[in-house]
Amino acid sequence: MRIVIDLQACQSESRFRGIGRYSMSLTKAIIRNSNHHEIFIALSDRFPETISSIRNDFEGLVPRDHLVTFALPGEVAEQNSANAWRRRTSELVREYFMEGLKPDIVHVSSLFEGWDQDVISSIGSNNYDIPISVTLYDLIPLMNQETYLSNQEIRKYYFNKIQSLKNANLLLAISNYTRQEAISNLGLKADNVINISSAVDSRFQPRNISQQERQNLLDRYNISKPFILCSPGGFDERKNITGLLTAFRSLPEKIQQKYQLIITGKIHYDPCARIINHAKGLGLEEGELILTDYVEDNELITLYNLCDLFVLPSLFEGFGLPVLEAISCGAIAIASDTTSLPEIISRKDALFDPTNPDEIAAVMNKALADEGFRQDLREHEHEQSKKFSWDISGKTAITAFESLISTKPKANSRKLLNNKSSYQKLISSIGRIDTNKKPTNLDLIRTANCIAINSSSLQNRQILVDISVLVHGDAKSGIQRVVRSVLLELLKAPPIGYTINPIYFDDHCYRYAKNFINDFLELEHTSVIDDVVNISCCDIYLGLDLSAHLTEAIHNYLVRLNALGIKIYFIVYDILLAHHPEWWPEGTSKIFTRWLKSITEVATGLVCISRSVAVEVRDWVNAHPPERAEQLPVGFFHLGADIENSAPTVGLPENADEILNAMNLKPGFLMVGTIEPRKGHAQVISSFESLWNQGTYINLVIVGKRGWMVEQLVDRISSHPMLGKHLFWLEGISDEFLVKIYNNSKAVIMASEGEGFGLPIIEAASHNTPLILRDLPVFKEIAGDNATYFSGLEPESLASVIVQWLDQDRLGVVPSSDKIEFLSWGQSVSQLMDVIINQQWLLTRKRD
Amino acid sequence: MEDEFYLKFQDKFRGTRETIKERLKIYLPIIEPLKGLYPAGVILDLGCGRGEWLELVKENGWQGVGIDKNSSMIDFCNAAGLNATKEDALIYLRSLASDSVNVVTGFHIAEHLPFELLIELIKEANRVLLPGGFLILETPNPENITVGTASFYLDPTHINPIPAQLLSFLMEYQGFFRTAALRLQESPELVSSKTTQLFNVLAGVSPDYAIVAQKLAPPESLALFDDLLNNDTGLTLETLAQRYDSQTEAVTHQFSSQLGSIRTELNELGSLQSNIQSGLNDGRIYLQGLNVSMEKILAEQSNFKDSLAAELADMKVSIDGMRSDIKSLEPVDEKLEADLDIVRMDLQGLRTDLENLRAEREDLRVKLNQARSDHEAAESRFTQADSDRDSLKAELQHVYHSRSMRMTRPLRAIFGWGRVLRDRIKKKINKGLQWSIIEVTKRPRLKTKILSLLSHFPGTKQRLKNLTPNVKFEISSSDFLSEEPSTLSLRGRQIYNDLLRVTNHGKGG
Which of A705, A823, B78, B113 has the most CB atoms around it within 10 Å of its CB? Predict the structure, then answer.
């Protein structure tokens, strides 16, 4: 059975109130007791800031893919008449989305939402015949219309909701009283309304309070005597606080003097004034009544543990959670005998008529003075408290679902619409909407967008590969080579169940890079405009290129993708810019750190190109904790090597042979890589100069375009006396030429002071060219013992190692690179997919 | 032998009369003291020859008698006024009385006499001499090697050389008390010379000697002659030989030391030579090294030259290519110029547009500032109202808790009214605001503008939010949607068209 729980109640304002907490606890309990049933949790994209933390709450309880988000076209709060058309449409769109999930039952956590919030829940405009169940908290407004439904519009809204309620297939009432009320007042069948009761968090328990803690708390709230506690959870009139005050005042004088009256809970100005007014009217003295305002849970628990008596004098409640909280903590509680409260206490002599202050006082008195009564009551209530648990409620709910389904047809046997007809129904239903306000063009656009997003297909997931930088111009840099290679492999062999769709940002929006791919794969050019990207919630976004310049433009978009449930992954090549800003032009580092900040906030995971970089990234993240609720896993994969298979560029310069011949006169050492400050060219050239001065004639071949901040170095090379004889510099050569040069070189030198991977190492290994490397951890990771290492920034450090190497070479004992294990690009991309799709992460950063 | 011959012979070989006379003076001091002993001194000269001695002694106060067998000689002497007789020496001696003569001399006669005669002569001489008288016999010295082996025999009448030891022995044997040997007629230079040649060793020894023998006399007489007889003169063979030897030694020594130094020099030369040799070797090796380097450099140079040549060829080719490229560009240039003009005009147009946009932006900026200041005013009013409310609330709490509350009950009633009044007014204001908010939300464009303005004033925005918590604030930049259907995806556009169709959009209200 597939159960979809609509959890908008945990996203709206209700998430701060009892309804929100109830829904969260019940959902978790249902999941815990779900047996073999599939549980999905549906959220609305109208509250994007709540989605991440909810996902975090359910981390490990349900699979990530079971937390789905539907898109709505805009504001839908009922109280705003401008939203009318949108509201109706959203109801239909939501239902269409639900249908797409193929649920057996949809459970709405809170129906009476959406007056002033963007919550959509509709029952009755039901195109799809999905069984719906609803949590029913209370019918207080219905039963007290003068107080709550005096506003015409609100009244109308409320009765609409009641109508929907009636249309539900199953109601889960939070108390027996509520159940009874629903059955009687709404004319519902008893079978369709189940009491699943309520429970409190496991933290509400008797506790040992240390003397210190006790004193701290009492001092904090100016409590100097034994006290009577009331935590009404709100200060509506129905909470009857004034009644409590009157009752307290009626207690015997010595009792009054013995005890203080403590009332907790966030209280606004008006009710506060009212209560104080009433207190003073009664002649209560200063210090006898304390209003604590908002109290945190663990302090509340302590208060429950320390109080002498707990009183809940509400006129009516849906359940009366504070009472259960109190008795769960071992307090002695008395309450009104109305509505649902007797269900909790279940003992007549602990109840009173809340309208009768004298009766309240009498019971209070007894509960304070009569020791035997107290003891008895405490034991009884302690037993009572055990009858309420979330697991019980959850199990009851599941049972109710199961029996509902057994009577109703199952999803695959009920009249299941295929996607097309489901869609048709939606469109025609939208056409039938009749509201005063007609939809604007923007509304239609938005709606169309949402419907497209909500048409989720679990079969046809996309991997949206962001190659924005590559599309705008192939810079032939190291990163570009990787992007091209990974892209090619993905296109050749997409993972099962996924389509590879390269996308790019064209300064307005994301588009499919069809034209680019045609060129890339040398297919026929179609030259139409590339289409805007269509997203849906099961897709994956893969930030393949380093597009730090796009951060500002796309950050919010990525946040939205994340909220919609799309998994976002970035490849991190290195974070050298964060640690060594001086190696790049001024200002670059700031852009990069901003990018880093953005992706650590928004990513589902980060994949680095080596373990070393992954460790660095994890450390950076720990030092700069991003604002996010969920964990940030950090993984890595290794790059591949075969130049021939990476869509290489071709083309030999005319004098290729001459250059090769000139280079072959002496043993040649090769450096590959853009000329940047950190690549260490200056040190290598200096060390070669010292070797040339000593009469050791060996060649240095530098392959790489000039980069940034290297004007001096470029001048040095261009005007070097040995240029053309023993020093060679080849800018911007094709991969084809590069292969030839690898084959003609004695060894490859990598002197970078910082690298993310070191692709030339693998390329050299694939040509069996020996390696001379700086002893960076990442190089050790890739090459292991199959290279010669040097350390230090002085030319002499490298020169002496080269001299040694030449000796070893004469003896034939240089470490060869043929044992370096490297991957083909196919294997590399397999690793990457393993990380992303099979969730094989190395390092997860736990949220505190 | 013919006397004349011998006279001439003596003149030639012995020397001149004057020379001889000079030589004979040596004896005079020795015999002189005899004058004191025997004032009438007679000197008998046997074989007086040319009478040199006779003349000499006569000059020195002696009576001299000479005897010779050569008549020419005697004539000569007599001619010179000398007392000389032709007589046989021995016969004459025997005719004399004993102890009657002071001195008996015989210069160069001994070697003429056979040995037995000699003995007799000496014997007889001894007898005739007075006590203390002298016998002086001078004869060639065979110690001189040239004399003893050669020049003695120049005179054929010489019999044989008589060594000095023999003659002196003879004298002593015949009874003379004492004898002294006097070596004579050596070269005075040779005596004083330090050096001597070999010839002098052979011929430089004193060629003659004399034995001076004295007959026994009373000691006091003898004592007169002691000093005179102790003179050692002359040159012995030993002396000369030794002199020659030490000379030779000296020379040899000199030679050997010279040889030594030469040897040393030779050694030095030798080591110098080996140094030079090794230096030469090093130089050779170095040269070889230089050769090798030279070869390398030459090889590189030739390579370099080759590559230079190749480069040069390339450059030539590319220059040619460039030349032809440049040629082909010429016609394009004109076209480019025309395009450039068009572009220039476009640019001008763009510049104008930009200016316009800038002006517009300035307008908007002014408007924005105005709106900002308006909202700032509103904001501060709200802040004020808020703080008023809070302070009022606190006051109220305080007031109600005070004991004086009861007493001020009537006053409170009034305040309560005031409060109620204020609440009512506040409600009305809120309601008005709510209405205006709702009206704004109905106008999306206006709402967007106001919202973007409000984003600068989060406080005000929150306040308004609190007033109407129902109205959702949003800016849908997260969708990239606009009023254009082209911002929808393909699917979206299809749906949009369907919606258009069913809602009859455009027709009716």
Answer: B113
Alpha helices in A455-550 (DSSP H): 468-472, 478-492, 514-520
Cβ-based neighbours of A644, under 8 Å, separated by 6 or more: A739
Nearby residues of A714 by Cβ (< 8 Å), 6 or more positions away: A675, A706
Beta pairing class for A510-512 and A498-505: antiparallel
Write out the two tokens for A683.
């040190």
Q: What share of chain A is helix, strand, coil (3-state, %, to 5)?
A: 50, 15, 35
Mutate to test the interface with B, among A12, A47, A80 (most CBs of B within 10 A): A80
Residue partners of A794: CB distance under 8 A and separation at least 6: A683
Q: Is A739 left (phi over 0), alpha (psi -120 to 50) or beta?
A: alpha
What ipTM, to 2 d.p.? 0.81
| In the block, residue with structure tokens 């350390």 | A791
Residues recorded for chain A: 848
Instruction: Locate A693 and state its tokens.
Output: 């001065």
**pLDDT tens column, A671-721:** 988 888 889 999 999 999 999 998 888 899 999 888 888 899 999 999 998
Distance from CA of B401 to the nearest CA of A (A): 5
Buried b (16+ CB within 10 A) or exposed e, A602-623: bbbbbbbbbbbbbbbbbebbee
The Cα–Cα gap between A59 and A53 comes to 10
The count of other CB atoms within 10 Å of the CB of residue A93 is: 24
- pLDDT (0 to 100) of residue B431: 65
Q: Do residues A564 and A538 make contact, with C-beta atoms less than 8 angstroms apart?
A: no
Mean pLDDT of B209-233: 83
Distance CA A341, CA A321 (A): 9
B303, B470, B481 member nearest A79 (Cβ) = B470
Residues A92/A125, Cβ–Cβ less than 8 Å: yes
Triad B356, B357, B360: Cα angle to 5°: 90
Structure token digits, residue B334: 């004109």
Interatomic CA distance for residues A448 and A457, integer angstroms: 17
How is residue A646 written in tokens? 């990476």
Q: Do B480 and A509 touch (CB under 8 A)?
A: yes
State how far the Cα of A90 lies from the Cα of A117, in Å rounded to an integer. Answer: 13
CA distance A511 to chain B (A): 8
Rounded to whole angstroms, what are the CA distances from A370 to A164, A279, A360, A362, A376? Answer: 49, 26, 15, 11, 10
